[in-house]
């Protein structure tokens, strides 16, 4: 079931189109990564979905009574308020009853790991603490759609891990769309991928679909030297590529699989150093797709 459907979404400022004819859908309970270089239009797209910007053309169709939470890339706070006061205020603005707002704010701050800092003024918060606080205000009202602009960009590796785990736990009840440039983290918690460049959507699909189209899986066999690698490749019936002392064999139904390759290698008398399956990482796929468009 789709809770968001976007059709030909466009935003222009003067003569410049910063978002061009985007069409995609978000399925309930999924996490979608919006990936693109700086200036691709990711923030503008998220801002239109959050109803902070009006589209120049195109449509955004939301499920009935859909509640939305939004975390900008650089969240701003009132430095004289404590974390608890700020999130309690956000809860009230989101429609939570006054008598319940403080309790909900407290629980949310505990959830994002700020239980020991909830009575500190936000002006003294570090960048990572502000990122957690921004997430708290975005989820305090338990939205069904969560829009996050670079939610882990200001965090150290430990903080990124903790926030990624939090976002995974939210997926049970919440659909998440987030922009990121940390692709290793995106690969871990993403159901769907949207690649953007120059305001256009240049690739989309599930993680497995995108990998199948672009990952270029292969088996890499390493020999002691290039002569042995070339000799091995010439004696096989299947086409392979030789680079230095390595033989690269595509993974394809018409080629031998890993078990068959290992059986062939077991009969070899030449010096084999190692064999392994390889495929392009999400970052390599992204760079490949962007360069091709």
From TrEMBL:
Q: Which GO molecular-function terms appear in the entry?
A: ATP binding; ATP hydrolysis activity
Matching Pfam families, A to Z?
A: ABC_tran, DrrA1-3_C
Domain of life (superkingdom): Bacteria
Keywords (alphabetical) are:
ATP-binding, Nucleotide-binding, Transport
Which InterPro entries would you find in this protein's record? Answer: AAA+_ATPase (IPR003593), ABC_transporter-like_ATP-bd (IPR003439), ABC_transporter-like_CS (IPR017871), DrrA1/2-like_C (IPR025302), P-loop_NTPase (IPR027417)
Q: PROSITE patterns, per this entry?
A: ABC_TRANSPORTER_1 (PS00211), ABC_TRANSPORTER_2 (PS50893)
Q: Locate the ABC transporter domain: which residues?
A: 4-223
Keyword hit for Nucleotide-binding: yes
The record's comment on protein family reads: Belongs to the ABC transporter superfamily.
Return the protein name.
ABC transporter ATP-binding protein
